[in-house]
Amino acid sequence: MGAVPVYRWRLAPDGLATRRQLRAVGLRPGGQDVAAQVERPRRRREPLVAYLYRVEQAKPVRPMTPAKWAALAKANAARRVCPECQRDAGYVIPPTLGMCSPCAFPEEQRAA
């Protein structure tokens, strides 16, 4: 990456933006190298770092194709299926439980 300019928090010049800032206006870095970085100091820890890209070199975000929408819907549906009872839970299964609530907390434990 080489030596890039480092700016303090909120002191970066105009024309530079983070990935999130680019995405908010419908742009992406588009393969360009990091132009600069911003550092936000923190007490007793290393500073937070955000990489900046040139807005004029940014490219538009690629639109979602029907195949991408279908793949996303399939992945989200898979997150709702309980691996124990194989039913759609109606919500995304929490990774901490790894199964739906009825399987994780059967009636015997609730009554006790």
Give a short summary of the structure.
The protein is of the alpha+beta class and about 110 residues long. It contains 4 helices and 6 strands, in the order E-E-H-E-E-E-E-H-H-H.
Shape: elongated
> What spatial order of strands do you see in the largest sheet?
1-4-5-2
User: SSE order, as H and E?
Assistant: EEHEEEEHHH
Count of helix runs? 4
The span between the termini is: 61 Å
Q: Radius of gyration, rounded?
A: 22 Å
Q: Please state roughly what percent of the residues sit in beta strands, choosing from under 5%, 5-15%, 15-25%, 25-35%, 35-45% or over 45%.
A: 15-25%
Residue ranges: pLDDT <50 for 5 or more in a row?
Answer: none
Number of strands: 6
Quick one: biggest sheet?
4 strands, mixed
**Which structural class fits the helix and strand makeup?**
alpha+beta
Overall residue-averaged pLDDT value: 92
Measured as a percent range, the helix fraction is 25-40%
Task: Characterize the structure shown.
- The longest helix has 13 residues, at 66-78.
- The chain is of the alpha+beta class and 112 residues long.
- The N and C termini lie far apart (61 Å).
- 25% of the residues lie in helices and 23% in strands.
- A four-stranded mixed β-sheet has the order 1-4-5-2. It has a two-stranded antiparallel ribbon with strand order 3-6.
- It is elongated and about 60 Å long.
